Amino acid sequence: MNEFPKGFLWGGAMAACQAEGAYLQDGSGMAVSDVSFFDNKLDRQDLSKHRDITTQHIQTAMTDAEIRRYPKRHGIDFYHRYAEDIALCAEMGFKVFRFSIKWSRVFPTGEESEPNQEALAFYDRIITEIEKYGMTPLVTVSHFEMPLALVNRYNGWADRRVIEMFCRYANSLFTHFGQRVPYWISFNEINGGRFATFKSTGVVEDKSENYLQDCYQAVHHQFVAAAKITKRLHEVNPDAQMGCMIARFTTYAATSKPDDVLQMLHDDQYDNFFYTDVMVRGKYPGYMNRFFRDHHVKIEWQEEDKALLQQYTADYLSFSYYVSNVSSASPDKLAATDSNLKKTLKNPYLESSAWGWQIDPKGLRYTLNNLYDRYQIPLFIVENGLGAEDTVDGAGRIVDTYRIDYLKKHLEQIKEALTDGVDLIGYTAWSSLDVVSSGTSEMSKRYGFIYVDLDDEGRGSLKRIRKESFYWYQQVIASNGENLTYQEPMLKS
Ligand code: BGP
To answer: How many angstroms separate the alpha carbon of residue 431 from the centre of ligand 1?
Structure first.
């Protein structure tokens, strides 16, 4: 067997806040992403300070008109170059194009009663372009770019009133694009609310009296909002599907010591399953009652919440997978490393990227089996890829064999999981083009099949160049995953 099913959705992903640029143009408002800064003294093995944003920092950034200090303000200028970018992805053979819509472009402060028509016209042009090549759009409604005004006024999702504003935003998207977009994702990596709280929920620690309480209350509001917009999407188009999404932090016990194994179970429950249990099974799991009690968290529920969560669950489960983590009952004694959205412990059996992210293709097979066993609904890998520094050689080529190797090994394990019986509907690699890094706002942490000539300080021609992986992925898609081999060079100079 070991085959990808017919109609498998091959593609790539990107996010508005990392790609569009066009800061404050055409009526757009400021988003949380527009205050995230680039630090040239960045410690790649400890990115924690990039995850903590203070009120003071926000105020400084708001009065700073500089674009380059905040790289997500310029992105890769997808706003003006989308036609060329989408054409390149079509050339690779993409069946599906994953992108996100910038909430603060459509509702600049989040509180307007009507959407910004220029923003809707922009996304209309994008979808038209995707359709032109016969690709399927996959749209993330919220990918780390809530209007900053909602942070300043409400401390983000900690306030229940944000649900209504989000629903108004989502409803405007469904009214305009609901018939044309078959796959949606409500919140990108919803478990980010606990680890990358500011960009995920807009909650600022120094504004909170009880930060942990606000983190979980914000996530609860996102759960309710996701249920509400799932209901609305199905009213608009019963055939459209709404997925939930987590950053899948697959984790292994550091040793076979029962304490470590229990820690692994807890980390899996608190960091992963809580989110998917609510969004797929439709109710809060019992283990969270204990967690909330132990951590003095008391979620405020409204009467409608329980029924909403139960009735409007996700149609499919999507996730990002970059790394695997390690769990230990005595973590202080062990070496740590950076990972997606948070730190973890070192696994001596794995190699790491230059940013310390531990590479584990077999962990993806484990993850697919583990999620499918638990939920029995279709899965969709919506992010997987390697962040690396690419260089353009003397002949103008980018020979990113390390990226091909990473992707190839992960696709081999996906094939194994398909043979294991997992129902996987698609794979969108992160990222289609190089974009500004979500975690560090660097440009030099590149993931794309298409190189973008831009450096960390925002200098460069923005020229797009096909990497070696572009031609390799083209072959992979053309053979529906049959041919994963790589023979250098794919690009004949
Ligand atoms: C995920 C995000 C993406 C993305 C990716 C890689 O957390 O959904 O937006 O960028 O990780 O992370 P980074 O850019 O920090 O390397």
So the answer is: 9
